[in-house]
């Protein structure tokens, strides 16, 4: 990440997601530079697209594009814009940045995979806690829980920046009442993150062991200064 500079880097937004992204791409996601077009791949959607520096760093480390691209971050000639663009950056599934779109897109994508009888791939969507203030997320949460999408995992990075707070039960209660299975782990603990993701992916399209429906992993990190 240190190769990328500039006022638009959104450092806190990017660094809050770094550990989650690394664990997903290093230990969980079934996707590689060789399989980005494979219908059977897992899909990762970065809804929190205004801070993509960590995302770019992880994609480069995993060989999706050359590390040398990072130094051009945000320049007119660089494919690495301040918001990720799926038409320019290998491995990126959606163009994002305007908050509140990733989870609804993930719901539609998960539904589409099942409609195509592709029951193996999972869809993972990373959202920020403040982003969940957007009403479009509430609709996605309710719908995914109501239809019981078993191949969808949302990852909420909680750096305590929601405008209104969450009240008793936190983010988890907001999803659980909508029919999601939920868990919270320390967002800098790689072993805890990997264990949470292994539980959600262990059943393939069947969801958590003994449970069906979408899953939420809340990753707690330090609050924004």
SSE inventory with pairings:
Layout: H1 11-15, H2 18-28, E1 43-46, H3 53-61, H4 102-115, E2 123-128, H5 135-147, E3 152-158, H6 170-176, E4 181-186, H7 190-202, E5 215-220
Parallel strand pairs: 1-2, 2-3, 3-5, 4-5
Notes on the structure:
With 225 residues, the protein is an alpha/beta fold. The chain has a single domain, classed as Thiamin diphosphate (ThDP)-binding fold, Pyr/PP domains (Rossmann fold), CATH 3.40.50. The chain is 32% helix and 13% strand. The protein is built from seven helices and five strands. It has helices at residues 11-15, 18-28, 53-61, 102-115, 135-147, 170-176, 190-202; strands at residues 43-46, 123-128, 152-158, 181-186, 215-220. It has a five-stranded parallel beta sheet, sandwiched between helices. Helix 4 (102-115) packs parallel to helix 5. Mean pLDDT is 87; it is low at 203-211.
